[in-house]
Specification:
Layout: E1 4-7, H1 14-22, E2 26-29, H2 37-43, E3 46-49, H3 73-88, E4 93-96, H4 98-106, E5 111-112, H5 115-118, E6 136-139, H6 145-150, E7 158-161, E8 168-169, E9 177-181, E10 187-191, E11 198-201, H7 215-226
Parallel strand pairs: 1-2, 1-3, 3-4, 4-11
Antiparallel strand pairs: 5-8, 6-7, 9-10, 10-11
Helix pairs in contact: 2-3, 3-4
Length: 227
C-alpha cells in the first residue's frame, strides 16, 4: 500500500495532489472541519504543507505590516497545530512556500513581513505567471538533504526556481538549519537535521508537475513515509 500523505488545505490543490501521486504516495486532501489534527497525525504517514496567503504576524509577536493580506486565522491555527503534532511525532514533513513559513513560526521562528519594503527588490520574488517560470537561482548547501534529493539538477551549487511570495523566514526556529538562500539572502530552504524527514522550500515545486523537475522532493517525502 502506498503511504498516505496528508495535504494541508489550500485553494490550488491539484498540482500538490498529482505530485504526491506521481511520487508514489496516496494523497489525502485535508479539511479543517472533517479532519482534526490528532486524527490526521494518527492516520497519515507524512505531511505536505502548501502555499497560500500571509501568516498572521501576531503568531510571532509582531504588529501587522501594511502589506500583509489574506490572513486566515482558522488556517493558521490548524496548520500550526498540524506542524507541532507532526514534529512531536517525527512525522515526515515537506513544506512549500507559505508552508515553510508556517513551519518556522510553529517551531518558534519569525518572518519578514514584506520583502520589497524590508529587504529590497533586487531579486524578483513575485513572478506569478507562468507558474513554472524560473525567477532566480538559489544556493544549495553541500551535504544537505536538498542537495541529495536534487542531485544533478544542482549545477555549481545552484538551482533555478520559480517564486511567488512577499514574506519569508527571518528568525530561524531552534533545531532548523538554512540549506538554501536567494542571491539577496532570503531563506529558500530549511531542514531539521534531527528529524526523519523535515524539509521546507520557499519556491513552488508542485508547479513543475508536468516536467517532473522537482519530483525528487515529493519522492523524498514519500520514501521517508514508507519506512
Amino acid at each position: 500500500m502506498p503511504p498516505r500523505i496528508a495535504i494541508a488545505p489550500c485553494r490550488r490543490m491539484p498540482d500538490y495532489v498529482e505530485s504526491v501521486r506521481l511520487a508514489g504516495g496516496d494523497p489525502w486532501a485535508l479539511s479543517y472541519a472533517a479532519d482534526p489534527v490528532e486524527a490526521v497525525v494518527a492516520a497519515c504517514a507524512g505531511l505536505l504543507l502548501t502555499g497560500g496567503a500571509d501568516v498572521d504576524p501576531a503568531r510571532y509577536g509582531e504588529p501587522r505590516h501594511a502589506t500583509v493580506t489574506g490572513v486566515d486565522v482558522e488556517r493558521d491555527e490548524y496548520e500550526i497545530a498540524l506542524v507541532e503534532a507532526a514534529l512531536a511525532a517525527d512525522l515526515p514533513v515537506l513544506a512549500v512556500c507559505r508552508g515553510l513559513q508556517v513551519m518556522n513560526v510553529a517551531a518558534g521562528g519569525s518572518l519578514i513581513q514584506d520583502i520589497p519594503s524590508q529587504v529590497g527588490t533586487a531579486v524578483p520574488h513575485q513572478v506569478p505567471e507562468p507558474k513554472d517560470a524560473v525567477a532566480h537561482g538559489v544556493s544549495v548547501a553541500p551535504g544537505s538533504r536538498l542537495a541529495a534529493l536534487m542531485g544533478a539538477a544542482v549545477v555549481a551549487g545552484r538551482l533555478p526556481v520559480n517564486s511567488r511570495h512577499h514574506q519569508a523566514v527571518r528568525r530561524i526556529a531552534d533545531g532548523f538549519v538554512v540549506t538554501s538562500l536567494a542571491p539577496d539572502g532570503i531563506v529558500e530552504a530549511l531542514e531539521r537535521p534531527q528529524a526523519r524527514f523535515c524539509l521546507g522550500v520557499q519556491w513552488h515545486p508542485e508547479n513543475f508537475v508536468e516536467s517532473g523537475a522537482f519530483l525528487p522532493l515529493f519522492a523524498g517525502l514519500v520514501s521517508a513515509a514508507t519506512r
